[in-house]
Predict the 3D structure of the following.
Amino acid sequence: MRWSHLYIPCLPRFLTPMLDAPMPYLCGISREIFPLAVADISDETVVVDLDRNVITMGTHTPELPFLPHRRKLKLEETLERHAGDVFWKARGLTSLEVEQARLDGDENRLAKMLGTADAIWDEKICMMDEAFNLAHAPDSMSLMFSGDEAEYGKQSRWDAVQEGFLRFYASMLKDYRKFMPSVPKNKQSTWRGPDSEYGGRFLAEEFVQSQPPEFEPFLEELIGTQQFDDFITRRMYNAGDAPDIKFFDQSIDAKRNRS
């Protein structure tokens, strides 16, 4: 499934009023512009502060459906193993060091650690904003606390994160093909259309009801999304020319063979 809504990596100031748009969007915004955009942000918007590692839900953000317990634990384990340290590593620390300082209750040590981490991050951000990658000064915080190590020959952590979500959706949708319609080639419409006289409709309710009860809340929300609509429509009419759909079906088959 693909993100099929509005995506703007870096939103300019003159476009901030669109943050109140009644539609899904994924937008990046700089810290300098953010205070000027607060009044424009919808009360359903989820704000993710990458600099502070903080997520803020809007006052009217719909509640997210519960994930099946076992599937949720497996996904969280994958994310923690491959991306859990990203925020702190970029600041010259590890999540274990920060957690240990908090458990020790040494507020002075914790404050010093976090102050150093903020200084490292601020310097890195400044370097990213420069037109040229200037050399660090001899007393650079980034040089003193850098923990970056090249891992040649190993899988990218982001590939591993992507695979974690692939396995999650393959588990949740492993039976979806049983409820696909048989569509004549001369008929073209979305699966939500009224063309049910020839079976041109994905059997959404039947699919959800066939799944374990703990799957149902998430699947009921999922099948109502535009992403799922796009996925099923492409699966019905363009499966032969869609490598991503072929790969997803092969992933489901591989999972079945392992089970």
